[in-house]
Amino acid sequence: MLHVVLYQPLRLITQTSLTSMCFKLMLSRPVAFAQIWKSWFSSHSLVGNKNIILMGPPGAGKTTVGRIVGQKLDCPVIDIDDDVLETTWNMSVSEKLQDVGNEQFLEEEGKALLKFSASGSVISLTGSNPMHSAGMQHMKKNGIVVYLDVPTTVIMSRLKSMKVDRIVGQSPGISLKDILQFRKQFYKRWYDIRVLCGGDIAAEVVAEKVLDAVKRYQNSELETFISTRSSRSARSMEEDSCKYFSDVVTEGLAPDGGLFVPERGLPEFTAGEWQSLIEATYIERAQVILERCIHPADIPASKLAEIIGTAYGENFTCSKIAPVRHLAGNQFLLELFHGPTASFKDFALQMVPHIFAYCIPRSCNYLVLVATSGDTGSAVLDGFSRLHDTDKQRIAVMNFFPEDGVSPIQKSQMIGCQKENAWSVGVKSDFDFCQTAIKQIFTNSDYTGFLTVEYGTALAAANSINWARLLPQIVYHASAYLDLVHQDIIPFGSPVDVCIPTGNFGNILAALYAKMMGIPIRKCICASNENNVLTDFVRTGVYDLRGRKLIPTFSPAVDILKSSNLERYLHLIANEDGQLVTQLYNQLENQGHFQLRKDLLEKLQQDLVAGWCSEEDCLAAIHSVYSTTGYILDTHTAVAKVVADRLQDRTCPIIISSTAHYSKCAPAILRALRIAEIKQNPLSQLHLLSSYSPLPPVHWGLLETLKKKGNEDHEVCAADMGMLMSRIETLIQNHFM
């Protein structure tokens, strides 16, 4: 009898009666008891006294999957429909619904949940349980809620085969599809873990995915981060100093000067999981992808959803967030400029400030330092200025930019984005000096320690050296591919190339990460302007800064010689050999160059090809595209377009990252379009461009920023480390003290 009790979905056994039966079995059949105890202990070690609660729409397979999970864990299985509702009501669910109607049914169903309790069980909810708030709060107290996320089209097909044409809550005139979409908001409110379930996936496979997801949820200590410069032997000796996502967001740069990367790599999605996202919105795709990259112990799914909704809900001018537009032939543009500051940096920097505010301890103030070659500064300033007032009191941001190395509009925008917790400082040098200075400040333990002790303030980084900056960029590369599939341009699984204007290597690294996670990207084309150190490196394996001087160009965001995120990629292809990475970067620092081994160069060239574009060709491309299509490329996108034309083989679609709105480089655009009169005032330049009724229109957010008064007010500092550190200390005193 006990064997039946343990495996059947019984919920009425009391703790006393179960203990009594176990005691009798132990006396009469000790071997059988030992086997059952071992099985119970195995399941108990996974869930303890917690329940695994399966949630999802009708037709998601909750009952079947629940039984399989229960069998694998040797624990009780409870189906709310069969074992609770029908037992409580003494009638079938359909009879109850017909008897009381939709609204009263939901209330009666919720009351039944409130009276129910269990522990160490697998529980399959009804499709409508999540619509009763009090009932779900009661269930979550002792359970891990697992959302079986099945695409609506798949659910519709399953329900049709089951001859189900109406579900709870569906009023006359409302379609089945509409009510299924309506219910999603309730599922998203309650789950702890999401399991993606494609169309033809077997229940046995879903059950394994549920168990894997629960194991991940229970074991946050497995998702640690390491420095690109740490050796394996050093890591084994430093197990007590593990870094988690919250730590790397807060710290930015590793103590040894390296960059943080996940020790176990990024999660891989199956083809079926990616296909389940084809119909999803951008925000839904972001939620799914980032949940797999950020452990819920660092940011729970519900909080992550709130952050993503805040970042992309109202701050972007296009409802698609990152639309893909056909340009010509096999070329498509991924428009990444619809955010508030008109560049791709908004995708990370509308989100990272909220992630940062959630992850940092409340006991300390934080000053975020950032160096920019053009677009990052305004995006950081705008993002951190949108924090809640209480967070702005404890988090400030200081942006360093090359005073004479950005466009007039970019400078006006950075100055115009200054707020009560966000400031810009022009530095009389180039971007490489600004970036190197920040790295040196972070690794100066005497200085950072002094700030902490004297002012209770810690420093943090918001450049793409911060791991959290990269994750939102992975999303838009994956989403672009899924959009091409959704538009029937390609079937899922067909390859695409991507071409990305590249300076600090973060954007193209995110595309490489998307490829690792299962997006069928064939080649990543690295597009440089006349500062073409990366082009030479990809072609030869030699990274050589000797004798190179930064050349100011029409595409200032990629006017970079030291590409920080390249270090993460080298660490990846070197099989996490931190000693080799340290050796390469020490050589770069001390001798101005390094060379990859032949085997590593071959690995690199399997992923990357590279080319560069002259200033003349950049302007010519802008003019040519406008003349043939009416579309205006910005200068950075024009660089990528020129390189794509040269390097693509036209055997598959190529997605060109359009990383900024042309409004940000208006003088160059006016010159490219051969407009004779170019006024010096940035606002006048935008009004002139707008008079041509361009496609896309002039960026509204940029116009609004430039209209603000006081755009000339900002600090300017000499290229001197002591001066920069003094400015930082003064800001801390003024804001936090």
Automatic annotation (TrEMBL):
Domain annotation Threonine synthase N-terminal: ranges: 240-312
One Gene Ontology term of the molecular function aspect: pyridoxal phosphate binding
Signal peptide stretch: none
InterPro entries tied to this protein: P-loop_NTPase, Ser/Thr_deHydtase_PyrdxlP-BS, Shikimate/glucono_kinase, Shikimate_kinase/TSH1, Thr_synth_N, Thr_synth_N_sf, Thr_synthase-like, TrpB-like_PALP_sf
Required co-factors: pyridoxal 5'-phosphate
Pathway noted in the entry: Amino-acid biosynthesis
Keywords from the UniProt entry: Amino-acid biosynthesis, Pyridoxal phosphate
Record carries keyword Amino-acid biosynthesis: yes
Annotated positions of the N6-(pyridoxal phosphate)lysine modification: 345
GO CC terms: cytoplasm
Gene Ontology annotations of biological process type: amino acid biosynthetic process
Protein family membership: Belongs to the threonine synthase family.
Database matches in NCBIfam families: thrC
PANTHER family: THREONINE SYNTHASE-LIKE 1
Name of this protein: Threonine synthase-like 1
Organism of provenance: Aptenodytes patagonicus (King penguin)
